[in-house]
Amino acid sequence: MTSSNLDAGFLHGFVESFLVVFVSEFGDNTFFISAILAMKHSRWHVLMGSLASLFVMNFMSVLVGYAASIIPKVCVTYVSSILFLVFGLKMIQEGWRMSADKAEEEYEEAQEHLQKTEAKEKSKATSRNQTSNMLSQVVIQCFTLTFLAEWGDRSQVATVILGAKENILGVLLGSLAGNALCTCLAVIGGKLIAEKISIRTVTLVGGVLFLYFAASTFYLDDD
């Protein structure tokens, strides 16, 4: 395989994973969790915890996908196409039925989830001084909440699929870039940004994007 082929494979994996992750994560529950925490705590600590969690999650997903690459290419192609098709149709359905105040609904849901979590944490917080000196509790909270919220969601499954069929480094860096951009937007001013950029539009565009990837995987596969 030539250097130009490797470069093209890297770029394709990077762009595809970046777009898939961004349209899946923008305006979701995790997005608003980061936004709310950034209003109450240090933005830097929230960013550190969220990005660390997403790095671990993406790294695990890409490794699982890479391990799955031992499966015959034709099986990966069919499974990838079907899953992308399902994700695309589901996102279009969600976007079509989505209300205009979806951002407000997601924000309130994330806020309620955080309030319940923080209430439980306060009831357990009896001897955390030693831990707090080593690492900010905000970082730990962001890491845990993000990891649990992202586990098994659409973007993680899509990253596993891409890791099985695309350049692994491109997929890893692309998914990290997509998550990093969403998290940075959330920390800077998630609620305001989500109100300015229609979540419904992003969801519909994301659905079309998944359908395109489903078709391109099935029809344009080199093999």
TrEMBL record:
Membrane topology, from the record: Multi-pass membrane protein
Pfam families reported for this sequence: GDT1 (PF01169)
Principal place of residence: membrane
GO biological process terms held by the UniProt record: Golgi calcium ion homeostasis; Golgi calcium ion transport
Cell compartments where the protein resides: Membrane
Coiled coil start-end: 93-120
Transmembrane annotation, as ranges: 20-39, 46-64, 70-89, 132-149, 169-189, 201-220
The keyword Zinc-finger appears for this protein: no
Protein name: GDT1 family protein
Gene (UniProt): LOC106072576
